[in-house]
Structure formats: C-alpha cells, structure tokens
Design brief:
Number of helices: 2
CATH topology: Methylamine Dehydrogenase, Chain H
Strand content: over 45%
Protein name: PTHB1 N-terminal domain-containing protein
Helix content: under 10%
Largest sheet: 4 strands, antiparallel
CATH superfamily: YVTN repeat-like/Quinoprotein amine dehydrogenase
Shape: globular
Order of helices and strands: EEEEEEEEEEEEEEEEHEEEEEEEEEEEEH
Distance between the termini: 56 Å
GO cellular component, one term: membrane
Pfam families: PHTB1_N
CATH architecture: 7 Propeller
Number of strands: 28
Radius of gyration: 27 Å
Structural class: mainly beta
Length: 392
C-alpha cells in the first residue's frame, strides 16, 4: 500500500454500453506539436481528444470541456485497434489507421480554423480502405524494409496470417509457424524485424526481408503453411501480456520490453537478456520510455497500483482510483509527461504522479471504562470455582 495517490486533472467517461481493451487507446502527434488522445471502442465509436490544460483563476486545472472532443465518429463495426503513421503515398502528413474485424480504414484528420466564436471545425476524411480475407486481431505500423518517409501496415489475423499493406496497395501474405493464438506484435526499426510470441511461449524475431522472400516463393499462404527461419528466439516460459520496443538514441540501440504474468524483462535487439525483474503481483498493462540511457517502465497492478521502475529498481508507487486497461505517456499542450489512463468501461483520465501523501487516519476506538470493583468480584468468583474443581 502506497502513501501516494495519482492526481488527475482531466477526465471523461464514455457511454454505458461501450467497452475497451489495451489496443483501444492511442496517443500520437497527428500533424501537430503536441499529442492527441484517440480512443476506439468495441461499439465502433472513434473519438479524438485534445485535453484542456488551462489553469483556472483559483490555480487548479479547468478539467474536461465539451470542446476537448475534437472528433466523434460512429463506425459500422467494432474497433479492434487504432494507430497512426504516414500511410498515404506522396503525403508526409500523419494519418489515422482503424482496424475492424474484416477491414482496415485510413483516415485523415482535417482541421479548419473557425472564423467566429464557435471555434474550429474538425472531421475525419476516409482516404482508403482494405478488405481483409481473415478476421483480424491486431496490427503494427512502421517503415518496413527501411523505407524512407512512409509507413506500412502489418495486420495479424486470428489464425496467424500476416497481411502486409504498402499504403494503398496490398503486397503479400505470410503464415506464422508454430501458431496457436494471436499475441502481441511489434516492429524493431533498427533491425527491420518483427517480434512476437509463439505458442511455446518463446519471444521470436523474424526479419522483414525473410518474410517477404517466403511470401514471394510460396504464393497464397491461406492454404499453405510456409517454413520461416527465425532471426532469434528467447525462451520466456510464460504467457506475454504486452510487448513494446523503445529506442535508446544515445547508445543507438533498441530495447524490447516484455511484460509477462510473473516477470518483466528487457531484451536487446538481438534477443540477449539485458535485465529482468520478478513481479510479486498480477500486472495489467505497461508503458516504457527512456531518459538519458535509463529505461523507465510504468506497470499497473491488479491491486489498483501504479509502479515506476528504473531498469529493475522500483522508484515510485502510487494508488490508482480505478483499474486501467491501457496506459500511455503524453506530451499535451502545456504539460509534458502526462499519464493517460483508460479503463475497460471507458473512463479516460489525464494524471500526474502526486507527491503529496494521502494518509489514512484510523478512527478512534471507543474503549469502555473499567469498573475495578466489579472486576475484582468476578476474579474472586472464578478463583472459587477453580479451587472447588481442583478439590473434587
């Protein structure tokens, strides 16, 4: 139990019939100098927020304002994941990718400054869409093949098919070997490789070049399982909750952070163990970032606790008001390093680590006064009973 408590300065709640998971939250700079907060519910509602960080006259933050909702769009299908990247050919702007069970949509955020007191006008414009042959699970966005100034999309299906989309066109399919259930998928820019989890609880890495060559040789993988050689594999030995890749700019290397049910570990880009921390609680989600050359990891626990690790050392812990299913670090307009939390029922909060202790004061216990004369009579009576029983 921590003495400290997370302090929230902005919060909002979605409708009662909306549900979210760890892929439903996105924090990204969409053609701006600050981060937007994007949520996509399993009911098909897509929202983009620009949290208000203005300070009121009494020195506190103003909190949520209806104008903080930049866009709210109701789509026809459940939203499985949201992402962002440079996904339109010949355009260096950042677009928004939305994954449905059977299609992938790419939107452009259009912002028009208002000329009256009614404010700015914002809306999402559909750029293109891809129909998916298999039911999707998640996706990852990155400059596959060391491409410059453009990003591609890799969609993982429920049965282990990776579908690669080169912006407006689809280029290949690849079936993952040793596949049982879809797991976390991430892309390492430095090595141009994909990292995921196999059915034998191994962290495995596949080079994009290898996947592309296998796709060209075997053709359609829907009915044919190809044999793909891994770049490296690490035997983790437990199920993986989340995988994240973080870049160390100073040392020019990439770190792969793995959150398991019982352990938190960090691997190098070549699959070598850098550090490992055994957890004595049940983790829910995590967020990673690097300051100088130190790796910081934020982990939320099932006991409504947020724990901050520097490498493997616990630096801070704070109590949460609710149990989040996703956590991100945001650089909002006016505030840097904000924590964005999202619950599975749609509670969205922007918080910071409070340093003011939240003490719990136990209520005073009412103790009745002792009547010594009455207690002495009771003691004599008990001694008489004991002596009689001993004589008998």
């Amino acid at each position: 139990m921590s003495l400290f408590k997370i302090r929230q300065f902005w919060s909002t709640t979605s409708e009662d019939d909306e549900y979210f998971d760890h892929n439903s939250l996105l924090v990204a700079k969409i053609n701006s100098d600050f981060d937007y907060v994007v949520t996509g519910s399993q009911s098909g509602v897509l929202r983009i927020f620009c949290p208000n960080c203005e300070v009121s006259e009494n020195g506190t933050y103003a909190g949520f304002n209806p104008n903080d909702v930049i866009v709210e769009k109701i789509l026809d299908h459940p939203i499985l994941q949201v992402g962002s990247g440079r996904l339109v050919s010949g355009n260096s702007a950042t677009q928004l990718a939305v994954l449905h069970p059977k299609e992938l949509l790419v939107f452009s955020l259009i912002l028009k400054p208002g000329k009256t007191q009614h404010g700015n006008q914002s809306y999402l414009q559909l750029v293109y869409e891809h129909k998916l042959r298999k039911s999707s699970a998640n996706f990852v966005i990155g400059p596959f093949g060391e491409s410059q100034n453009r990003d591609f999309v890799c969609v993982q299906s429920l049965d282990g098919i990776l579908s690669f989309f080169e912006q407006e066109s689809q280029i290949s399919y690849v079936a993952l070997p040793d596949f049982l259930l879809p797991g976390p998928l991430c892309y390492v820019i430095k090595t141009d490789s994909f990292v995921t989890v196999s059915s034998s609880w191994e962290i495995v890495s596949y080079r994009y070049k290898t996947l592309a060559e296998v796709a060209e040789e075997s053709g359609d993988p829907i009915h044919l399982k190809q044999k793909i050689s891994t770049e490296w594999a690490y035997n983790f030995g437990e199920s993986v909750i989340d995988l994240q890749v973080i870049s160390d700019v100073i040392n020019k290397e990439a770190w792969i952070v793995v959150l398991g049910e019982k352990n938190l570990l960090c691997l190098s880009e070549n699959g070598r163990l850098k550090c490992m921390k055994k957890l004595d609680y049940s983790p829910i989600c995590m967020e990673t970032y690097v300051i100088d050359t130190n790796l910081f990891t934020l982990v939320t626990a099932e006991t409504n606790m947020l724990l901050v690790y520097e490498n493997t050392m616990l630096k801070w812990s704070a109590h949460l008001d609710f149990l989040p299913t996703a956590i991100h670090r945001a650089f909002l307009k006016g505030i840097r390093g904000t924590l964005v939390l999202l619950s599975d029922e749609g509670r969205l909060e922007c918080c910071y680590l409070g340093t003011e202790p939240s003490f719990f004061v136990a209520p005073p216990v009412s103790v009745p006064e002792i009547d010594f004369e009455k207690a002495e009579h009771e003691l004599l009576a008990l001694e008489t009973v004991i002596s009689k029983s001993n004589n008998n």
